[in-house]
Amino acid sequence: MNKRTVANLAPAEMKGRRALVRVDFNVPLGEGGAVTDDTRIRAAIPTLQLLIKGGARVVLCSHLGRPKGGPDPKYSLAPVAKRLRELLGRPVTFCPSVVGTDAEAATKALNDGDVLLVENTRFEKGEEKNDAALAEAMAKLGDFYVNDAFGSAHRAHSSTEAVAKLMHPAVAGLLIEKELEYLGNALDRPKRPFVAILGGSKISGKIDVIDALLPKVDALLIGGAMACTFFKAMGFETGASLVEPDRVDMAKALVERAGSVLILPHDAIVAPTVAEGAKARAVKRDQIPATEAMLDIGPETAASYARAILSAKTAVWNGPMGVFETPPFDTGTNTIAQAMAEASAKGCTTVVGGGDSAAAVEAAGLAAKMSHVSTGGGASLEFLEGKVLPGVAALDDRI
């Protein structure tokens, strides 16, 4: 990575200085506001500990959810501050405003090693507009800037891009460094065979990733409902399956261009509806009934994909193989997760894109067995597409 990181900071650049740290604490909250999944909070801990040890005065900012039109108590970061206190094992002050005199005063009251979390950045209307005035107000909260919010790095917002251009040093946190290292090495210097597995519901959301990966991989395995758009392009019956009619011609062109690199499911698990799992059965891909839908890859496909993953030296996975939240349509996704874990144990570099794929390996208890599980679904997709991530581009270049 050609960007400066928090690990490159000199002691004098940290000690006694306020570090404005953009983290991704966009976590799910349950009854009573309790954090139900603290994965993203835990992912930020190494950067925070490094700053605390260096004597920085740590000021954290993050968004949470999609509040509309301003502050909304149900999207407050106050419960996150509570969980962060437990994980860090030290006090974390919470500031109920994002910017302004109260927030500035709170940052100036910090001592070396103290931690402060300000309120949800999206409570400020200018945040998602990358508003320059808001960025100037945010810049008053710190003396240097650290971006460790990979899950938001593909967004050009005031707290991820505009403020980084106003503060120096502006460096990447350890999480962003790790994300870009694993994703970058997989794309630019993969050990071969290099296998990519793409799932999910829509081909439209993955078309740029498919385009970007095809010239680089040895095999591109397709699963999920988006396989049905390919099936339609091949003239197969797709029944009640999710198909994107306006993408059929594109799918047909992809199949023709990709040749043997693009691999589609050989069989499918079908049922009349997701709710009728008891009626689920396996059929060949050209035998999907007119009244039923493909809801998972079939057992032959799952076994074949698992063999391909186990023969790989680099494997990148983004998107589930079926409706994995609802058994028995989780079998294909779980088979891929298990194969990725087994491949890791054999020395394969395994990278799981964020979002549903990350949720699937977490649910299966296999996250720790992957080389890397990304914290950013959208960001990892855009990186795989070859796009520049604004939140990374705005940081200082490594000299």
Brief overview:
This protein has 399 residues and is of the alpha/beta class. 35% of the residues lie in helices and 15% in strands.
Tell me what the structure shows.
With 399 residues, the protein is of the alpha/beta class. It has 2 domains: 6-177, Phosphoglycerate kinase, N-terminal domain (Rossmann fold, 3-Layer(aba) Sandwich), CATH 3.40.50; 190-384, 3-Layer(aba) Sandwich (Rossmann fold). The chain is 35% helix and 15% strand. The protein is built from 15 helices and 15 strands. The chain has helices at 11-14, 39-53, 78-88, 101-108, 132-139, 158-162, 174-188, 207-213, 226-233, 248-258, 299-310, 331-345, 356-363, 377-384, 390-393, and strands at residues 18-22, 57-61, 93-95, 115-118, 144-147, 170-172, 194-198, 219-222, 262-263, 267-271, 281-284, 293-297, 314-318, 349-352, 372-373. The strands form 3 sheets. Strands 3-4-2-1-5-6 form a 6-stranded parallel beta sheet, with helices on both faces. Helix 2 (39-53) crosses helix 3 and helix 11 runs parallel beside helix 12 (331-345). The mean pLDDT is 94.
How large is the share of residues in beta strands? 15-25%
CATH topology of the largest domain: Rossmann fold
Tally of strands: 15
Helix content: 25-40%
Kindly report the spatial arrangement of strands forming the biggest sheet: 3-4-2-1-5-6
Order of helices and strands: HEHEHEHEHEHEHEHEHHEEEEHEHEHEHH
The CATH architecture of the largest domain is 3-Layer(aba) Sandwich
The CATH homologous superfamily of the largest domain is named Phosphoglycerate kinase, N-terminal domain
- Integer average pLDDT: 94
Instruction: Please report the number of helical segments.
Output: 15
CATH class descriptor name of the largest domain: Alpha Beta
Quickly count the domains: 2
Oligomer: single chain
